[in-house]
Specification:
The chain is built from three helices and four strands. The chain is an alpha+beta fold and 152 residues long. It has one domain.
Length: 152
């Protein structure tokens, strides 16, 4: 009888250890999924801002500062696009918007908007250890066709 009770006590201890290991693994996995979800949500906001700038730029391709203003005013969550951490690159016909000649800002040419966020902080330390860094570099680019003006 004594032997059976000791055996059941050992099994309960073993079950507790297995549960502890399993729950630790599951919580680490859950934290990683939450961080990756935050990164996806932030990337989506960057992509949407770039899309908004590309749509505006397809009609007004020479208004570089207004295009950037449109991009930066689209959202302040999950990342504040007004922040200096966010870089905006506007290219008209493959040339930086501010130095592009007016001949490139014509019907049928391409306008490309890139929004870059280099300092997305990962909150889970284990994921940062696996990736080798605690920050992710997020970049969203959208290209659109210039709709006006028609240059001849």
């Amino acid at each position: 009888m004594q032997n059976t009770q000791n055996h059941h006590r050992k099994e309960r201890g073993q079950s507790l250890v297995e549960f502890t290991v399993a729950i630790t693994f599951m919580l680490i996995l859950l934290a990683g999924v939450i961080d990756l979800g935050r990164a996806l949500f932030t990337y989506t906001a960057l992509r949407d801002a770039a899309q908004e700038g590309a749509v505006y730029g397809s009609v007004y391709p020479t208004n570089c500062s207004q295009i950037e203003g449109r991009i930066r005013s689209t959202s302040n969550t999950p990342v504040d696009l007004q922040s200096d951490d966010i870089q905006v690159v506007i290219e008209v016909g493959g040339t930086n918007c501010s130095s592009a000649p007016a001949s490139l800002a014509c019907l049928g040419n391409e306008i490309k908007i890139t929004v870059i966020y280099d300092d997305f902080v990962i909150t889970m330390p284990f994921l940062g250890t696996i990736l080798g860094t605690q920050t992710l570099h997020l970049r969203a680019s959208v290209a659109d066709t210039i709709l006006s003006p028609s240059c001849n």
